[in-house]
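A note from the maintainers: we've had questions about how concatenated examples are separated. There is no special marker in the raw files; a new sequence line simply starts the next protein. For clarity in this README we add a label.
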Amino acid sequence: MASPIPSFVRFNSFAPALLTAIATILLSGCGNDIETVVTAPGIPQGTLATVDATASEVAIEINFDGVIEAVNQARVSSQTNGRVVSLPYDVGDYVRKGDVIAVMTDTEQQASLQAAKAQLSEAQAKLSEAKAQFVRITDVYAKGMVAEASYDQAKAAELSAQARAASAEAAVKDAEQRLAYTRVIAPYDGIVVKRLTEVGAAVAPGTPLMEGLSLEHLRVQVNIPQQYIGHLRQHKMARVILPSGESIAVDEMRMPPSADANTHSFTVLLQLPSIELSEPVFPGTLVKVAVVSGRETLTQIPDSAVAYRGEVAGVYVLSDNLDNADSADQRERVEFRYLRIGRATAEGQRQILSGVNVGERVALDPVLAASAYKQQFKIAN
C-alpha cells in the first residue's frame, strides 16, 4: 500500500481553463515564443505532489571489511572412555539444545555404578550399626558404668562411619555422571559443521566428536587501523552493511585495549542484534562495517523522489518561471537535475551531496513529473 503523503507535501493544481488559454496561444502563432509552461499538461487530474528538500545532520562514515562469526561455536569432545555406537546427526543438520548427538558404550560405566551403589549400601549399614552402638554406650556412660575411653571410641566409630557413607555417596554420583557422559548432549541450538569421529571408533576423554555453531547469536569481527580507532571510541557508533544491502545499527561492541603488534590494528567485535533479516547471513560472510568519524549537514529528499537513468541519478525540481509567465498559474516549470547521491536512511530519505539545494521543491512521483517535463516542451515548441 502506498505511503500517505506527509503534511508538508504541497500540491500544484491547475484549472482546465489554463489548457484552453495555452491552446489559444499556440493557435495564434506564438508557440515558438513560449519557452516554458506550467506542469498541467500530461498530469492525471492536473495534480503534481512536491516536497521541500531539507537539511539534515548526518554521520560521516568510513567503511572497513568485516567477517561474520558465531558467538557460540564449539568442538564437543568425549568425557569418558568407550566406543561410539551412534551419531544421530551429520554435517548441516540442525540440532536442538539437549538433543543427544553421540552415544557410546556404557558397560564399564554401568559396572562402576553398580559397584559404587553396593559400597554405599555397605557404608550405610555400618553407619546404622555405629549409631546404635553409640546410643547404647551413651546410656551406659551416663550411669557411670563404662569408662570415658569406651565412650570416646564409640563416638569416633560413628563419625568414621558417617564419613565412609558420605564418600560412598560421592562415588555413586561420580559413577552416575560417568554413565551420563556416554550420551553426549548438545549444549545449545545450532548446526553441525564437522563430524570428527565415526561409529565404531574408540574414544577417550578429550577425543573430538563433533563441531557445531549457533546462528542465533552472531557478531562481526573487523580490524580497525590505529588512526581510526579513536573515532570509534569517541562516537561508539557503527553499522553493518550486509551483502543484501540491508543496514544494521550496532550498539554493542568490544574493543581490545591494545593493537596487534604486526598489523597495528585493533580487532573489534560488533554484536549483531537479534532481529529478523530479509536474507539470512552465515558465519564467514564478508560484510562492510561503517564507522562514524564525525557529523556534517547534508541536503535530504525522499528516496522515492530520485529517478534513475541507468547509472545516473536525478530528480525533477519545480522552479519559478516569473519572466515567461502570462498568469499566476504559469509561474512554475519542471526541471530535471542530475544528482550526486549519498546513502539512504532508515526513514526512507536519501542524502544528496550535490544537485539540489535546501528549500527547493522536488516532485515526489518521478514518473508523473517526467510526463509533465516532456509535455511542457511539446507545448513550448
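[label: protein 2]
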Amino acid sequence: MTRRRPDYFFLITALFVVIAACSGESDTPADKTSQGDEGTGVPVRVARVEQKDVPVQLDAIGNVEAYSIVEVKPQVDGELSKVYFKEGENVSKGELLFLIDTRPYENDLRQAEANMARDTAMLKKAEQDAHRYEDLINKGVVSAQQYDQVRAEYESLGATVRADRAAVESAKLELEYCSIRSPIDGRIGEILVHEGNTVESRSTLLAVINQTKPVNVNFSVPEQFLALIRSYKADAGDLKVYASVPEGSRTAERQDADAGRIKQSAHLTAENEPAVGTLSFVDNQVNESTGTIMMKAIFQNESETLWPGKFINVTINLTTQEDALVIPARAVQTGQDGDYVFVVKPDSTVESRPVVPGARIDGEVVITEGLEPGELVVTEGQLRLAPGVKVRTSESSQRISGDGSDVSRK
C-alpha cells in the first residue's frame, strides 16, 4: 500500500484534468455562440420617422441696410466753429450737431432789418402824400400827372418794403442754417470736418447719419419662387422673415471679445436669437444676369443686433405644413432611380425604399411619400448596406456641440 500511493496520486490528478477539459469544451461553444449573436449584423445608426408641424421656409443671404441714410451738409458758407456730438453715438431728430460762425449772418440780418425800417418810413410818408394828393385832385388843385407820380412812388415803395421783408426772412433763415441739426433719429458716424475748417454750402460733407431703428434687409431669391411667395403673401398678408447672424461671424466676435477682454456676453446671447421682421418689398423685375428677384424685409431692430452693411442669414416663413413626416437629411441617399432610404425592418434587416423628399429645414428633410411614422431609417453606415442585410442599430441623438459636431451619438 505504501508503494502504490504515488500511482493513486497521479491517477486522481489526471482525472481532475480530464473533467476540467471536458467542462471547458462544453463552455467554449456557448461563449462563442453568445459572442457571435452580439456581433451579428452591420453596425449602423438610425433615427425614427417623426410626425410634426414643419414651417415651409426659403433661405437666403441678406445684407442689412439702414432704413434711412442722411448726408449732413451745410446750407451756408463759413467757418465751422463748434461740434456738439461724439462720433458713433445716437442722435435725436432736431438735436444740434454743428455750428457755423454766425457773426457774418447776424450782420446781414441787421442790415436787412435796417433797410426795411428805412423803406417802411419812406412808404409811410408816400402813403400820406398819396392821400393828400387824392384830396387835392378832387378839388382841382393839382394835375392828374402830379397825382399819378405821387401814387406811383407810393406803390413802388410798397414793393420795396415787401422785398426788404423777404430779405430779412432770408437773412434769418441763413442765420438759422448756421445751426446744423439732425433731421432724423439715428446713429451718427465719424466727424469728417473738424472745428476751424471752412465749409461750403451744399458741397462739404460733415457726417453721415444711419437710421438703425428700424432697418431694411435686402436679399434675393430664385425667380421660380416668386409665384409661391406672392401666393402665400396674398393669403397670409404679412410674411414673417427671420434674420440671424452666421455662426462664423458670432464665433469671430467671441474671439475678438476674448482677445480684448471685453464683456459682451449679453449682446452675443441676444444675437443668437433670430430677429423677426416682415416682408415689405418685392422688386418689379427679375435680374436677368442672376435669375433672381430682389426683396426687402423691415426689422424694428430695437437691440441693434442688425448692423448696416452686415451679411446675415435670412429665412422667409411661407406657411406651416402640419403633421409632416421628418427624418435627418443625412438618411436620404441618391441613386440611379432617384432618392431612397434604408428602412430597418422588425427582423433587423434593411430594405431600400424610394422616397420623395420635400423641404429641408435645419438638417432635417420632409418626406412626402415613402415612409410611415415611427419607422427606423439608417442615418450612418449606408455604404455597407444592401437590401436584406442584417444590421445592428443604435439610435442617433441630435444634441449638437458649439462647433456644430454631434457630441451625443452612441
